[in-house]
Design goal:
The protein is mostly helical and about 190 residues long. The protein is built from eight helices and no strands. InterPro entries: 4_helix_cytokine-like_core, Interferon_alpha/beta/delta.
């Protein structure tokens, strides 16, 4: 466990020279709105969880502590948001063969995710200091990494079945909603 924290800490230190500019206007005005749009597309593209999927037994402990913290520095918020959105983007980069989602909405969802991660990367460029709590960020990052790895394993274990994808979709919706609540608490419009 200590070794995992060490590697997460090293990853954070890799970003330190590039961490966000406090002048990231996109973050102030667009992150929450774009996140709401992508959540809407994700909800609409598949509808409600099919009844046949209610019997699927999947043990995923939601990483609530990743979204709750006293450290609400701009740098930490950007890194957590980037972390979440990048994990989500990578999940949906998988093969979606068995699902019958609205492909147009799926395309819009993935496009918004791609643009969000790109804009957050721009926010991280050029800053030479990290004002957030590195230990807190490392812990939160590790929770998210483990959680999203479990979702990837669910997809693999269930052979990317319709029910596995639907359960993952529901979990991602919950994550995006928690991200919005975190942005609310931090005062982002």
């Amino acid at each position: 466990m200590a070794q995992q924290h060490f590697w997460t800490f090293c990853l954070v230190l890799t970003f330190v020279p590039q961490i966000l500019s406090l002048e990231c206007k996109w973050m102030d005005f667009h992150l929450r709105h774009k996140n709401e749009l992508s959540t809407g597309f994700l909800k609409d593209m598949g509808g409600k969880l099919p009844l046949k999927c209610l019997t699927e037994q999947i043990n995923l402990q939601f990483p609530q502590n990743a979204y709750n913290s006293e450290d609400s520095s701009t740098e930490t918020i950007v890194l957590i948001a980037y972390n979440v959105l990048n994990h989500v983007f990578n999940l949906f980069d998988e093969t979606l063969t068995p699902v019958s989602w609205d492909l147009s909405k799926l395309h819009h969802f993935k496009n918004i995710l791609f643009r969000q991660t790109g804009k957050l990367e721009e926010c991280m460029e050029g800053q030479t200091a990290f004002a957030g709590d590195l230990h807190s960020f490392a812990d939160r990052s590790e929770l998210l990494k483990t959680y999203f790895e479990k979702m990837e394993n669910v997809l693999k274990d269930k052979n990317h079945s319709v029910c596995a994808w639907e359960i993952v979709r529901m979990q991602v919706i919950r994550n995006l909603e928690q991200l919005n609540m975190m942005l609310d608490r931090a005062g982002y419009p």
